[in-house]
Amino acid sequence: MSFTATQLRLYFIMGSQDCPDQDPIDVLEQAIAGGITMFQFREKNSDLTLSETVALGRHLREICRQHNIPFIVNDRADLALILDADGVHVGQEDMPAREVRRLIGPDKILGVSAENIAEARQAIEDGADYIGVGPMFLTSSKADAGFPIYPEALQSIREQLEEPFPIVGIGGITASNAHKVMAAGADGIAVISAIAKAEDPKQAAEALVQAINSTKM
Ligand SMILES: Cc1ncc(COP(=O)(O)OP(=O)(O)O)c(N)n1
Ligand SMILES: Cc1nc(C(=O)O)sc1CCOP(=O)(O)O
Ligand SMILES: [Mg+2]
C-alpha cells in the first residue's frame, strides 16, 4: 500500500487491553464507520497468548483490508510480517528503525516515534514514512509516556525540518483539544482512549473528524 500524509488524519490505535468491556472487533468496525483513516494494532501488556494475539490480529487486519484502511503493527516486525500488515510503528526503545526498514522492505509503511528534532531527523534518515510526536497531553493509556511535550514541541519540529514530512501527534488527544495539535502543524492525530474507551466509538470517531476538519490553520 502506498503511503500519503492524508492517511494520518485520524489514526486509531488499539489492542484488547484498551477496551476491556467491548469486543475489539466491534470497536474497530465502529471506528471505521466513524471515519478513521489508519489503524495500529498495539497489543501491549494484555492477557492474550501469542496465538490469541495472532488470531485477533488476523481478524482486525482483514477488516482493515476490506475498508482500505492501512493496518500497522506496533513494535513487532515479526508479527507485522505474519499478519501481512501494511507497516510497523517503532519507538526509540524498540528495534532500530533502520533494521525494521531492512526487514520489511521499501514498500511497507514505517512509523517512528520522535520527540525532538534530532530524533525526527534520525527517523527520516533511517527510512521512516512518518513520525509520531508525543505525548501532546497527559495520557493514561501508556504508563511510560512521560510528561506532556505539548503541541508547541510538534510545531518546533515542523518548523525545523528542512522539507515537509508527515507528522502525527499522539497522547491525551480528545475532540476538545485536537484543534491545538492540528494548528501546530500536524497532518493528523493518533488516539487510543478517545475512541476505544468511548461508549459509542462511531460517534467518538465522528466527533474527532469534525474537530480535525474545523481546525483553522
Ligand atoms: C503513531 C504512534 N506514535 C507514537 C507511538 C509510541 O510508540 P512507542 O514510543 O514505541 O511506545 P509504544 O506504543 O510501543 O508503547 C505509537 N505507538 N504510535
Ligand atoms: C501509544 C502512545 N504513545 C505515546 C507517545 O507519546 O509516544 S502516548 C500514547 C498513548 C495514547 O493514548 P491516548 O490517546 O489514550 O492518550
Ligand atoms: Mg514501541
TrEMBL record:
Protein name: Thiamine-phosphate synthase
Binding site for 4-amino-2-methyl-5-(diphosphooxymethyl)pyrimidine: Q40, F41, R42, E43, K44, N74, S113, K142
Record function comment: Condenses 4-methyl-5-(beta-hydroxyethyl)thiazole monophosphate (THZ-P) and 2-methyl-4-amino-5-hydroxymethyl pyrimidine pyrophosphate (HMP-PP) to form thiamine monophosphate (TMP).
Assigned keywords, A-Z: Magnesium, Metal-binding, Thiamine biosynthesis, Transferase
Catalysed conversion reaction: 4-methyl-5-(2-phosphooxyethyl)-thiazole + 4-amino-2-methyl-5-(diphosphooxymethyl)pyrimidine + H(+) = thiamine phosphate + diphosphate; 2-[(2R,5Z)-2-carboxy-4-methylthiazol-5(2H)-ylidene]ethyl phosphate + 4-amino-2-methyl-5-(diphosphooxymethyl)pyrimidine + 2 H(+) = thiamine phosphate + CO2 + diphosphate; 2-(2-carboxy-4-methylthiazol-5-yl)ethyl phosphate + 4-amino-2-methyl-5-(diphosphooxymethyl)pyrimidine + 2 H(+) = thiamine phosphate + CO2 + diphosphate
Stated family: Belongs to the thiamine-phosphate synthase family.
HAMAP family: TMP_synthase (MF_00097)
InterPro entries registered for this protein in UniProt: Aldolase_TIM, ThiamineP_synth_sf, ThiamineP_synth_TenI, TMP_synthase
Cofactor: binding details: Binds 1 Mg(2+) ion per subunit.
Known pathway: Cofactor biosynthesis; thiamine diphosphate biosynthesis; thiamine phosphate from 4-amino-2-methyl-5-diphosphomethylpyrimidine and 4-methyl-5-(2-phosphoethyl)-thiazole: step 1/1
Ranges for domain Thiamine phosphate synthase/TenI: 10-195
Cofactor: Mg(2+)
EC category name: transferase
Annotated positions binding 2-[(2R,5Z)-2-carboxy-4-methylthiazol-5(2H)-ylidene]ethyl phosphate: T139, S140, S141, G172, I192, S193
EC numbers for this chain: 2.5.1.3
UniProt binding sites for Mg(2+): D75, D94
A single MF term (Gene Ontology): thiamine-phosphate diphosphorylase activity
Keyword Transferase assigned: yes
